[in-house]
Amino acid sequence: MKKFTKIMGLITILIISTTLLSCQKQVSNESNQSSEKVKKIVVAVSGSPKPYNYVNESGELDGYEVAILKEIDRRLPDVELEFQKTDFAGLFAGLDSNRYQVVANNMTKKPEREEKYLFGDTSYVKNHTIIAVRENENNIKTIDDLQGKNVPGSSSGNATTLYLEKYNQDHKDKPINIIYTEGDYSATLQDLQNGRFDAYVVAETYVDTASKALNLNFKRLPIANEEEVQQSKAYFMFRKDQEELKKEFDGVLNDLIAEGKLSELSIKYFGKDYSK
After folding, report:
1. Which residues, other chains included, contact 42 with Cβ-Cβ below 8 Å and sequence gap of 6+?
2. pLDDT higher for 20 or 243?
């Protein structure tokens, strides 16, 4: 009888051990399958201009675009976003080489960009491009008034610089004197205030932010053909092979707009609602 009891005990232990091993294997397999389903997506930002994206006092990436991306990451269980900071030119080179799959840097649509890259259907910011001049400037009112004037351009070739360069190609007899600079918009606006430049073709959000932070004052002149200079809406920019990811991003953005979350984030970072 004792022998029988011992045998049954051993059998019971064997069954329990086998069951536990089977459960652990199943959990491990499920965990591996779950991990395999999550796609790591690298998002590139330049770390400027503030408040779109920037490095905060804690040394962490922050800003309006970063906050939106964190919401997207939270709401897409099949995606894990990783941020990488690079210079402006590196944003495009990184997409070309597949080092990055998405760029978030206040990107506006331009035909030359749309030929190579995929843009979202839903924008996350809408703002105006203006001509900023000193308050005592009375002779500049339009783009044509910039002929012969000192106007900053980005050495990395942003949308407004591309427009100014095209303008000069079409007006070779009376070109705008483009002075290329590597300074960010805050430094450039300070140079405008100090007289280095006569005017600055720039997004109004940048003027808002710098004026408050640096106590600068400018006239803000509307541009009649604003959409030719730079589209007023900014989008996330993807590699051409990221159509499905683009649709997922658009879906979350539409939800954020409907919930009022995008407006909330815009007011937090800009001080006003530039989301629509």
Report:
1. 81, 82, 83, 84, 99, 100, 101, 102
2. 243
In DSSP terms, 201 is beta-bridged to 131
Least Cα distance to 272 among 180, 192, 209 occurs for 209
**Other beta carbons less than 10 A from residue 175's beta carbon:** 16
Res. 93: pLDDT tops 90: yes
Q: What is the per-residue pLDDT across 191-229, written as a single tens digit (0 to 9) for each?
A: 999 999 999 999 999 998 899 889 999 999 999 999 899
| Amino acid 238: pLDDT | 98
Determine the 3-state secondary structure of 176 from DSSP.
strand
Give the pLDDT score at 231. 83
- The string of DSSP letters for 185-223 reads HHHHHHHHHHTS-S-EEEEHHHHHHHHHHHT--EEEEE-
- Alpha helices by DSSP H, the chain: 2-37, 64-75, 88-96, 111-116, 159-170, 185-194, 204-214, 226-229, 243-259, 261-270
What's the CA dihedral at 157, 158, 160, 165 to 10 degrees?
10
All CATH 3.40.190.10 domain ranges of the chain, comma separated, are 37-126+233-270, 129-229
For domain 37-126+233-270, which CATH number applies: 3.40.50.720, 1.10.390.10, 3.40.190.10, 3.40.30.20?
A: 3.40.190.10
* Token pair recorded at residue 272: 């006003």
Rounded to two decimals, what is the model's pTM? 0.73
CATH class of 129-229: alpha beta
User: Looking at residue 261, what is its pLDDT?
Assistant: 97
Q: For 155, which DSSP code?
A: T
